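Data card: per-record layout.
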Amino acid sequence: MNHCNATDQKSSLSQCELQDLHEMIAIQGGVLKSHQVLSLMQQHAVSFEQIKKLLLPVCEFFAIAPISKFHAGAIAQGET
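The structure for this 80-residue chain is written out next.
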């Protein structure tokens, strides 16, 4: 994990970062910790609203759609 090189650091998530995030979120039971979200926001110089949009492709990996085959992502914000 975290094998992305410096050229991947920009205001969008590279394919490499998406793969790394997918792996990390899967290990953590589908959750990003608040400090991880804050780190991503700082790394990409984006707001909370913007990082949620950037993370949607990662959420699509976790969508289960056996009938429609429409893999939509969703993000929820916890209290802690």
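Known properties of this structure: The chain is about 50% helix and 0% strand. The two ends are 25 Å apart (CA to CA).

See the next section for split statistics.
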